[in-house]
Design brief:
- This protein is of the alpha+beta class.
- The protein has 2 domains: about 80 residues, Arc Repressor Mutant, subunit A (Orthogonal Bundle), CATH 1.10.10.10; about 130 residues, no CATH class.
- Helix content is about 45%, strand content about 15%.
- The protein is built from 11 helices and 11 strands.
- Strands 1-3-2 form a 3-stranded antiparallel sheet.
- Strand 10 and strand 11 form a beta hairpin.
């Protein structure tokens, strides 16, 4: 792809995401689940025919993927890069509007999925604690790696660190959190920690949003194993109360 084609490609994707109904559809798919066009039409508050046209455009630009199972057709984000781009745009969107305040419920800001890993206040605290305790080490320009004590901690929880390191994706990296405007943990390690939390019932997943509910057991485990506070008492840095942005439904 030459420079001119690249520029055209970027502008086409930007234009597709800029349409409010498409934005809502894409944000609804950021929990990694697949949804039908009917469900996405309801979320975007458009007719079924309009939703189909929007989804066809998003599919054409490789932003969503179509899954056909018998008579059923489901849509999901094309891959984690789309989720990462949307998460970054959410941060930029807030910075571009100095009077912005999110209309997203507190519990969604506290803990939610960011495609296949955990985001929100709880995830940022966990990220910070892993670094503070020396379990996670920042390798400048290359993301993160585990220390010996960090590897022992996670192996003790049943996470196969070597298998994660062998994956083709990045092992561990910062992912800028739109509500906290600070990093949470992404990459293969971030995904493994979310799956561990779900498997051990530290968190529960909402069926109709990206929200994660922290269980009583999860609260104890976060505090006992990691030293992470699970109180909902941290607000986004620099947040200023005002009118909600009409095109930014961040469920």
């Amino acid at each position: 792809m030459n420079a001119e084609q690249h520029d055209v490609g970027v502008s086409q994707v930007a234009a597709a995401i800029a349409e409010p109904a498409r934005t809502r559809m894409l944000c609804a798919l950021m929990d990694g689940r697949a949804r039908t066009s009917t469900e996405l039409a309801s979320i975007a508050d458009v007719s079924a025919s309009t939703a189909s046209a929007h989804l066809a455009k998003l599919k054409e630009l490789a932003l969503v993927r179509l899954h056909v199972q018998g008579r059923h057709r489901y849509y999901s984000l094309a891959d984690k890069r789309v989720a990462e781009a949307l998460e970054a745009l959410m941060v930029i969107g807030q910075n571009a509007a100095p009077t912005f305040t999110s209309r997203t419920p507190d519990r969604l800001q506290f803990a939610r999925t960011c495609y296949d890993h955990m985001a929100g206040t709880l995830a940022v605290r966990l990220h910070d604690r892993l670094l503070e305790a020396g379990w996670l080490l920042d390798v400048e320009g290359q993301g993160y790696r585990l220390s010996e004590s960090g590897e022992a901690l996670l192996e003790g929880l049943g996470i196969d660190v070597q298998a994660l390191a062998a994956q083709r994706r990045r092992f561990a990296c910062p992912c800028l959190d739109w509500s906290m405007r600070r990093p949470h943990l992404g990459g293969a390690l971030g995904a493994a920690l979310l799956q561990l939390a779900i498997k051990r019932k530290w968190v529960t997943q909402d069926l109709d949003s990206r929200a994660l509910g922290l269980t009583a057991n999860g609260r104890r485990e976060m505090a006992g194993r990691f030293g992470v506070s699970a109180e909902i008492d941290v607000k986004p840095t620099g947040a200023i109360a005002s009118k909600p942005a009409p095109t930014m439904d961040l469920r």
